[in-house]
Amino acid sequence: MPAAPAPARQPRPFQPQPWRDRRIEIILGNLLRTGALISAAVVLLGACIAGVIQSALNGRGRGRGQGLIQLGLLLLIATPIARVAFSVVGFAIERDRLYVAFTLIVLAILLYSLLGSGLGV
After folding, report:
1. Closest CA relative to residue 73, chosen from 46, 52, 48
2. Closest by alpha carbon to 49, among 70, 28, 30?
3. What is the residue-wise DSSP string for 28-95?
4. Long-range pairs for 85-89 at CB < 8 Å and ≥24 separation?
5. Tens digits of per-residue pLDDT, 72-108?
6. CB 107 within 8 A of CB 88
7. pLDDT for the residue 120
8. Where are the domains of the chain?
9. What's the CA dihedral at 104, 20, 31, 77 to 10 degrees?
């Protein structure tokens, strides 16, 4: 007697993917890309405002556009720092203690170079 065919597998509802290297790489790539695009947009907006206000008001409102340009550059600097901070979280989820320790050291050095040098420390 022939065996009965196996029942068709039902599709599972969406389940989050495990934290694997490839998934973390994709998230980090998107983080860097998004940070660079946002910072470029803010710098471009600041340059447009600085140019328009400077020509319309003869230099009186120039600080607003320059402030946006500085904010865009700060976002550009903060993007790789956010990448390192997210890497700490990713390595912690993977329970890779050695990489968590090394990445925390890198994060501390980055934060010190950004903040500590301006504080006179």
Report:
1. 46
2. 70
3. HHHHHHHHHHHHHHHHHHHHHHHHHHHHHHTTTTHHHHHHHHHHHHHHHHHHHHHHHHHHHHHHHHTT
4. 86/27, 86/28, 86/31, 87/24, 87/28
5. 888 888 888 889 998 898 888 888 889 899 999 999 9
6. yes
7. 58
8. 21-118
9. 20
Per-residue tokens: 110: 């980055």
Largest CA distance in the chain: 95
pLDDT tens per residue, range 12-58:
666 555 657 777 788 888 888 999 999 999 888 888 887 766 655 55
Q: Is 6 helix (H, G, I), strand (E, B) or coil?
A: coil
